[in-house]
Amino acid sequence: MFPERQPNQIEVGLIKLKPGFEPSKVQAQLAKQLSTDVRVLTPLGFAGVEKYYWESQGTIGFIFGLGVIVGFIVGIVIVYQILYSDVSNHLPEYATLKAMGYSDGYLLSVLFQEALLLAALGYVPGFLIAIALYQVTYAATLLPIAMTLARAMTVFIITIVMCTFSGAVAMYNFASDSR
């Protein structure tokens, strides 16, 4: 394919097998005969190596990881502001509950319930927007990206952690400010 390249510059080679040959057996046989600096892969193995590279070592993995970190930090700040404002706006109700004998743990659980509600209500539209963006990105670039169940669950768990953490910080800061 590239006549200007010398044999010592070859990075990837392809062997097409005749019908009746088992790819895994040919792979094992070639791996024994070739030097250790040559990796012999089946098409599925090669696809796995490439996928791993682009997800973890390449630009896509880095950008996705950076986006997760930035989104997590921004999410904490936004949810914190919402919850802190809600506690401030409902201070008389919290004071009444406290005067009636409800514990700090109970009030914290109310705030955590609100945080979990925010997580669930925020996740649904975000998930739908993400699916649409994945489709648009795939159509424009033909990059092999899609919303997987594992990715969706990971983001949901991160969202719950983010909102719960924000609730705890909001309650702590409010308790500190009111003393």
Labels describing this entry:
mainly alpha; 179 residues; 2 domains; single chain
Outline the fold blueprint.
Blueprint: H1 23-33, H2 43-57, H3 59-89, H4 91-99, H5 104-141, H6 149-177
What does this structure look like?
It is a single chain. With 179 residues, the protein is mostly helical. The chain folds into two domains: 7-53, no CATH class; 54-177, no CATH class. It contains six helices and no strands. The radius of gyration is 27 Å and the shape is elongated. The protein starts with 22 loop residues before the first helix and ends with a helix.
Helix/strand structural class: mainly alpha
Which H/E pattern describes the elements?
HHHHHH
pLDDT under 50 segments (min length 5)? none
Mean pLDDT: 86
Q: How large, in whole angstroms, is the Cα Rg?
A: 27 Å
Instruction: Give the proportion of residues in helices.
Output: over 70%
How is the main sheet built? Answer: none
The best one-word shape is elongated
Strand content: under 5%
